[in-house]
Amino acid sequence: MPDKRAWESERLGDDENPDIITHKAPNEENIFFRNVCEGNLDAIAQNCRERRFLSNDGVGCLSRNPLTNLQRHFVITAALLARNCAVHGLEHERSFRLSDFYINKLDDCKTVDDVRMLHDRMVLDYTRRMRLLNRNFTTSKPVNDCLNYIYIHINDRLTIEEIADAVHVSPAYLSRVFKKEVGTAVSSYIREKKVDAAANLLIYSDYDIVDIAMRLGFSSQSHFIQTFKKYTGLTPKKYRDSNGRF
């Protein structure tokens, strides 16, 4: 039977032991979840680029095994994402099912970097959903209708004239109000959504690059590659190779 005093020392931590991790104040964590709930993609993307999820600074040790430790932190993050996003308006069942989906994907993670990549996909997924949700609460009906039309017809070769006709406003008016409320031009938003869809297909499907370009309505494979690299910094092939598949 283990020595009770030794067990208590390990359980509570030893203030004089330099190897004991001091838990950081909740400020950074609060800022992180606030950025997700506000749909702040720039801040969350920067967090992912800095690989903050892998930082041991002020983070408790939940296992001596690095992979198991990170997986347990992943589950905690997923649960907190589901709860915070549900509180801030994401449909409750959708939010928690999304958390369950990503936690189940942990079974496919064999390395620390696998967990890190899955974490980044999860937090960006939640952030994009919250961004769209927040936009739908603050944008006008023509812009909301435009966003929905783009979502439904993302595989088509969309034009501002076609979308304006579908939402019953002039192209000039739609261009002006969309830029004012969304912060980007309609054409730029369409390209961004097509790149998002392409990124998912590259990771979660076996379609080759030509098929993905055709499915998403790009005029050519070269146009697709050029557009994808502009938004992600990688060619489709390098993106698929670096992100793997789960």
Please, could you describe this protein's structure?
By secondary structure, the protein is mainly alpha-helical. The protein folds into 2 domains: 21-136; 139-243, Arc Repressor Mutant, subunit A (Orthogonal Bundle). The chain contains 13 helices and no strands. It has helices at 4-12, 27-37, 41-49, 66-87, 92-105, 112-138, 141-152, 160-167, 171-182, 186-204, 209-215, 221-232, 236-243. The two termini are 43 Å apart.
How would you briefly describe this protein structure?
The chain is an all-alpha fold and 246 residues long.
Structural class: mainly alpha
Radius of gyration: 22 Å
Termini, distance in Å?
A: 43 Å
Task: Please summarize the sheet with the most strands.
Answer: none
Percent of residues in β-strands: under 5%
Shape: globular
Topology:
Blueprint: H1 4-12, H2 27-37, H3 41-49, H4 66-87, H5 92-105, H6 112-138, H7 141-152, H8 160-167, H9 171-182, H10 186-204, H11 209-215, H12 221-232, H13 236-243
Helix pairs in contact: 3-6, 4-5, 4-6, 5-6, 7-8, 8-9, 10-12, 10-13, 11-12
Q: Which properties best describe this structure?
A:
single chain; 246 residues; mainly alpha; Arc Repressor Mutant, subunit A; 2 domains; 13 helices; 69% helix; globular
